[in-house]
Amino acid sequence: MDTTRTLGRSGIEVSALGFGCWAIGGEWQGPEGQPFGWGKVDDEESVRAVRRALDLGVTFFDTSDNYGTGHSERVLGRALGKRRADVVVATKWGYLFDERTRTADGSDASPAHLRRALTASLRRLDTDHVDLYQFHIGDAEPEQAALLRDTCEDLVREGLIRAYAWSTDDPARAAVFAEGPHCAAVQHALNVLQDAPEMLRLCEEAGLASINRSPLAMGLLAGKRRAHQPPESGDIRSRPPAWLQGFGDGSGADPEWLARVEALRSLLTSEGRTLAQGALAWLWARSPATVPIPGFRSVAQAEENAGAMAKGALTGGQLAEIDRLLGR
Ligand SMILES: NC(=O)c1ccc[n+]([C@@H]2O[C@H](COP(=O)([O-])OP(=O)(O)OC[C@H]3O[C@@H](n4cnc5c(N)ncnc54)[C@H](OP(=O)(O)O)[C@@H]3O)[C@@H](O)[C@H]2O)c1
Question: Where is the NADP-dependent oxidoreductase domain (predicted)?
Fold first, then answer.
């Protein structure tokens, strides 16, 4: 398998695997105190993990201004240091937060906020441009998003961003952004348990990259999550919001999801892959547009996930067998 892919029609080249930087933002909370992070993290381990990923050929990193209320961007900026020029950095805007109390604080879909948020992200990332700037409010009004798309075109002309995308699971909304010439991608949920055929069709037809969030089903496809084993209290999976699937009421992984993982285990772990590597291999086989961005919190996870590239994509026959096993 070619271990590089392009971000759609932008022509920006990235490693076929990106790294998702939500977890390394550490703990933060929603307005009612519900956890929005993935529990405690060790910043020094996060920095080592990012640098290990760079050494293993990963050149694409996805973060957001609100992950850890700015902390993820700071840790990523510090870890990249002088190697910033060698990588493609994607971040997001749209949600408001208080860095001092590490609390989320609503959203703002105005063009004025877009410019303010970009200035703040550039400072935290310690860079003069963002390669891929992504609108984070997945269910925002399309008419409002069209204004933001046009502002993003201005930002491309000003040299502050190279390309932009919408992080949304709705193909109709993604199509609104796709009308902008420098829209390069859509970020959306996709993993072997949650297919998204309509969104992939749009990406392939419109020349957009399909950046895959939750490629490991928020850890379920890494194999160490159990039923009746609650995640730690600062972890979003312990009090899952409505959109977070596979963790039931927070008392542990959903048995029905775990059963589907078990049904696929032997196929995904064939040819010397770990379960997580098999889940990533499915994504590369699913479409030439996909770029999975698994989360990570340690050097060991960075090595295992980056190692998936050398093992390549599943075959068409294996994809068909997976659909059969899942009754799709
Ligand atoms: N709306 C949006 O735009 C949006 C929403 C969600 C995510 N994202 C982006 O997508 C990225 C990834 O998606 P995700 O965070 O939902 O989850 P994911 O990639 O499906 O799962 C990541 C989690 O799985 C576990 N893991 C990863 N590699 C592992 C390995 N090799 N072995 C064992 N466990 C492993 C880690 O958690 P544990 O160690 O705690 O199990 C890790 O945090 C995020 O970081 C973020 O950049 C964007």
Answer: 17-325
3-class SS of residue 251: coil
pTM of the predicted structure, to 2 decimals: 0.98
8 Å CB contact between 244 and 231: no
**271-288 tens-digit pLDDT:** 999 999 999 999 999 999
33-58 pLDDT, tens digit per residue, is 999 999 999 999 999 999 999 999 99
**Atom 14 in ligand 1: residue holding the nearest Cα:** 214
C-beta of 162 in contact with ligand 1 (< 6 A): no
Q: DSSP letters of 119-166?
A: HHHHHHHT-S-EEEEEE--TT--HHHHHHHHHHHHHHHHTTSEEEEEE
CA of 218 to the centre of ligand 1 (A): 5
Domains of the chain, with CATH numbers? 4-219+275-312 (3.20.20.100)
- Please work out whether the CB of residue 38 comes within 6 Å of at least one atom of ligand 1: yes
24 Cα–ligand 1 center, Å: 10
